[in-house]
Write a structure and sequence with these properties.
It is built from 10 helices and no strands. The protein is mostly helical. It has one domain. Helix 1 packs antiparallel against helix 3, helix 1 packs across helix 9 and helix 3 packs across helix 9. The radius of gyration is 17 Å and the shape is globular. The protein binds zinc ion. Zinc ion binds next to helix 9.
């Protein structure tokens, strides 16, 4: 699947989860009650969209690899080697658990700078994959990504507490949405890695096809906006 399909599926998953699930589930294990504020809802949408790119950290030519220039490219090459190549360890339920727990542990033990760093990175991924910046690898595109991600991180720092307790859920959900998307393609994923079983329900025949660009991504985007609008107007 393409980056924008993954990102919009993550956004939709977040909007749906925020509308349907109680806050105690979204903030597990911190267990808060009540409803998410509008800023949390909107930030969560972009952060989950960004997190939906994380499993492709095993792909040296994917969106995630180019987002921060040579730094992310080197990191992706390393992750690809360690995880056994594309669609192995990072495309498993174990990876979902790892990123969700890692986010919780980072927020809990490392604190504010970890949270802001992660937010910046996920927002950069979201801006890139949702095509909110000029296309290509040029300086204009890179600069736009940096500025928008920095602005979002600043907003997060201003309006949301040090440890947004829904962040681990958001990151795990984004990664899970990615795996579901890849399972719908021909290659499938090894969800139960390290076991060899490959899960696949091939509905989408080839990555990069027109179906994704012209139908799936726009539908996911519209769905996200509709669910967010419903949630915001029903829980003011
Ligand atoms: Zn993937």
């Amino acid at each position: 699947m393409l980056g924008h399909s993954h990102a919009t599926s993550g956004a939709l998953a977040w909007a749906g989860a925020a509308a349907a699930l109680p806050l105690s589930v979204l903030t597990f294990p911190a267990l808060q009650y009540g409803h998410l504020g509008t800023v949390d809802l909107l930030m969560g949408t972009f952060l989950t969209a960004g997190a939906a790119l994380l499993p492709d950290a095993d792909h040296p030519n994917g969106t995630i690899s180019h987002v921060l220039g040579p730094i992310s490219h080197a990191a992706c090459k390393l992750i690809s080697r360690v995880s056994g190549g594309h669609r192995h360890a990072t495309h498993s339920l174990a990876f979902v658990a790892l990123v969700a727990y890692g986010t919780w542990a980072g927020e809990h033990w490392l604190g504010r700078w970890f949270t802001l760093g992660l937010v910046f990175f996920l927002l950069a991924l979201a801006v890139r994959s949702l095509n909110l910046c000029p296309p290509g690898e040029g300086p204009r595109s890179y600069f736009t990504v940096m500025v928008l991600a920095a602005a979002g991180t600043f907003a997060m720092d201003q309006w949301i507490s040090d440890k947004p307790s829904w962040l681990p859920f958001s990151v795990g959900l984004g990664a899970l949405a990615h795996l579901i998307g890849d399972c719908l393609t021909d290659r499938g994923c090894r969800l139960f890695w390290p076991f060899q079983i490959r899960t696949r329900i091939p509905i989408i025949d080839r990555t990069g096809n027109k179906l994704e660009t012209w139908i799936i991504s726009p539908l996911f985007t519209l769905g996200t906006l509709a669910v967010l609008w419903y949630t915001i107007t029903h829980h003011p």
